[in-house]
Design goal:
By secondary structure, the protein is α/β, with parallel strands linked by helices. 39% of the residues lie in helices and 12% in strands. The C terminus is likely disordered.
Length: 402
């Protein structure tokens, strides 16, 4: 019986790599509340993004970062916020928890992302107060194009760049980016988030809101310790900053390895499918520099079900990204406004995530290649019939010959 192949395996620093940072933390006796390691991490990010230190802040996670950015924009309660229907649930829940209404739009067929052109058409049909595009699977957006959109429409744009650290930059433009430093992302801090914004005062306000909304500025027109806003506790701890700093030391090497593995697997699986797979295409925002997922698009539903069946038999973990669409989730359906999204619907029917993690062996890669080859081979000589299964993934292959 083959060993299971997991979908994702975190790539985090080893204990000995963390030790110098943990010793610094312990020596300082500072474990939270914007400690020296958090400040060092933020200063490093400010240098990387070529912005002032006040334009960067860490948060406990990217979801809270999105929520606090939306709060810091001071939009009227119940504002409509445009976002893609094809995304992770946290994008929508952050909008809802900030007191606004998600408006779900379609995505581009090649990049699988919400684009400025799609946003303009959506805003024309249903006016919105802000836009939250998503860097889908880490693919970067063209920030100059979004800056032009923001200038023309007056709508603030907040990029949910959760999976795009190392790929998404301001690109000599303006904008607001929210990254995840979760354990499955390219720069893991176990848990954490990063907000980078050229909008004056926005990052500083998010920082304040992440500390309950308490004023810590002695030059402000209110006492230190007085509540300046209704925030929450969303600060990054010194421990998570230590992991982030240790991860930064090896980021370039690990990113290069991820790119090489991703390229190799794409080549193997393309060949195994007879060149029938489709992949996310980069747009004018640049290339994906540190892939964390392997997501392929199959020709149709039957091909996806066949591959799922083979992987199930071979103990290869798979995931349908992102299914169901946000507009199809009962708990969200009556709290969102959904625009027509035929491309997102087609993607949700045909995309499948396969295992991808640094440290995959040649044997594991060969098993993925064989699974794709077998699934396409079966459909050439068989017909696919659905059969009942508690997860809806089981299929039965019946010989098509009389």
């Amino acid at each position: 019986m083959p060993e299971p192949i997991p979908l994702l395996v975190p790539c985090v620093p080893a204990p000995h790599e963390l030790l110098p940072w943990l010793e610094r933390m312990h020596a300082a006796r500072h474990y939270s509340n914007f400690g020296p390691l958090v400040c060092e991490l933020e200063a490093t990010f400010a240098t990387q993004f070529q912005v002032a230190g006040a334009q960067v802040t860490t948060v406990a996670n990217a979801t809270l970062g999105l929520e606090l950015v939306l709060q810091a924009l001071d939009l009227p309660a119940g504002s409509r916020i445009l976002l893609p229907s094809f995304t992770f649930v946290a994008t929508a829940t952050a909008v809802l928890r900030a007191g606004h209404v998600p408006v779900l739009a379609d995505v581009d067929a090649d990049s699988w992302m919400l684009t400025p052109d799609i946003a303009r058409a959506a805003h024309a049909s249903m006016p919105v107060a802000a836009v939250v595009p998503v860097a889908t699977f880490g693919m970067p957006h063209d920030m100059q194009a979004w800056q032009q959109f923001e200038t023309q429409t007056g709508l603030p744009v907040v990029i949910d760049a959760a999976a795009a650290y190392g790929s998404q930059w301001l690109q000599n433009g303006e904008g607001t980016l929210v990254f995840s430093l979760h354990t499955t992302k390219s720069l893991p801090a176990i848990e954490g988030g990063l907000v980078v914004s050229s909008r004056p005062g926005l990052a500083a306000k998010v920082r304040q809101l992440s500390n309950f909304g308490i004023n810590l500025d002695p030059t402000a027109e209110m006492a230190v310790g007085e509540l300046a806003g209704t925030g929450t506790n969303a600060k990054m701890s010194e421990y998570h900053a230590a992991v982030g700093l240790a991860s930064l030391k090896n980021w370039e090497r690990n990113a290069e390895r991820r790119r090489a593995l991703h390229s190799n697997l794409m080549h193997l699986l393309n060949t195994a499918s007879g060149q029938h797979l489709r992949w996310q295409k980069k747009g004018s925002g640049g290339a994906l520099m540190a892939p964390t997922l392997l997501c392929l698009r199959l020709p149709d539903v039957r091909h996806r079900e066949a591959l799922e069946y083979i992987c199930q038999q071979q103990k290869i973990s798979v995931r349908r990204w992102y299914l169901p669409l946000l507009s199809h989730m009962p708990i969200l359906r009556h709290r969102c406004l959904a625009l027509p999204a035929p491309t997102a619907a087609a993607l949700s029917d045909t995309l499948l995530g396969l295992p991808f993690f640094w440290g995959m062996t040649d044997i594991q890669s060969k098993r993925l290649e064989d699974a794709v080859s077998q699934s396409f081979g079966m459909l050439c000589n068989s017909k696919l019939l659905k059969s009942g299964h508690k997860n809806g993934l089981c299929v039965r292959l019946v010989d098509a010959q009389p």
